[in-house]
# Entry
Amino acid sequence: MIVFPNAKINIGLNVVSKRPDGYHNLETVFYPVSLSDALEMVEAPKSGISFSGTAVHGAPEDNLVLRAYNLVKKDFGLPPVHFHLHKVIPTGAGLGGGSSDAAFTLKLLNNFFELQISVEQLKNYAAAIGADCPFFIENRPAFATGIGDVLSPVQLDLSRYKLLIVKPPFGVSTPDAYRNIVLSVPSFSLSKIQERPVEEWKELVKNDFEKSVFKEYPEIENIKMKLYEMGAVYASMSGSGSSVFGIFRELPVQIPGQFPNDYFVFS
Ligand SMILES: C[C@](O)(CO)[C@H](O)COP(=O)(O)OP(=O)(O)OC[C@H]1O[C@@H](n2ccc(N)nc2=O)[C@H](O)[C@@H]1O
Ligand SMILES: Nc1ncnc2c1ncn2[C@@H]1O[C@H](COP(=O)(O)OP(=O)(O)OP(=O)(O)O)[C@@H](O)[C@H]1O
# Structure
């Protein structure tokens, strides 16, 4: 069975408080995008994972795909399986690629082995893996609070716009970004985002990570400015970076030529 775990972008991100467990409460809008990995699972004599595509760091047994499999196996005694992960979504990019792989693994196991796990229980498994992970279970535009795990759907449809995602040749560590965050009191609640046209977002919708991350990596701010110069209606860093997305009415021509060769450009 093959599935295609997709990336997300964060439209706005307000980090509102630090919790006693070290995590942060936030407000964000998750929006699924079509940039995707490919994940295949077959039954095999021994469990494992192989890779192709862009490099995935870390030991295979630490991969979030195997962590998701082991979590479900504990409760359901699954047979051994082999996964092949073709990685396309860059890591350290704020695009949630690893979280999506894990969430799609949970859904894949549920479907393949007919485990009858409810959506709520799938979200609980996902929350045990990472804060971004529960969103990818239902994978639809959602306003998120808590640590990113309390989700309510928003009627947000950007399909008449074009999206351009630019990833510089380096990533940003999520734990480091949270360590350096400056907390904010949101002046606009992202739960109301669908009521405001994209044309107004530039003034209303902020990502709190930008301040500290731009200071350390001015190149990321340059990408954002470039996207506005290219005619973006709205541009922002996604999550804790390092990728930046631009929302356009029409995509500018010759996009890759606008950025150096070692930048990934996805449209
Ligand atoms: C930046 C975002 O991508 C925005 O969607 C997410 O908040 C990050 O989610 P994630 O990568 O799934 O995060 P996890 O793997 O659960 O946590 C990585 C680290 O980020 C920090 N972390 C994460 C989420 C959160 N709400 N508060 C935090 O402080 C914690 O230090 C944690 O150890
Ligand atoms: N399946 C996987 N794909 C990518 N990275 C994985 C995976 N499993 C574990 N990891 C580890 O997780 C780290 C973060 O990867 P991820 O793709 O979630 O990027 P991110 O940009 O930090 O996402 P986020 O938006 O959640 O902050 C990687 O550096 C890698 O060591």
Summary: The pocket of adenosine-5'-triphosphate (ligand 2) is lined by residues 56-58, 63-65, 85, 91-99, 101, 132, 174, 239-240 (CB under 6 Å). The first strand starts at residue 2 and ends at 3. The first helix runs from residue 64 to 76.
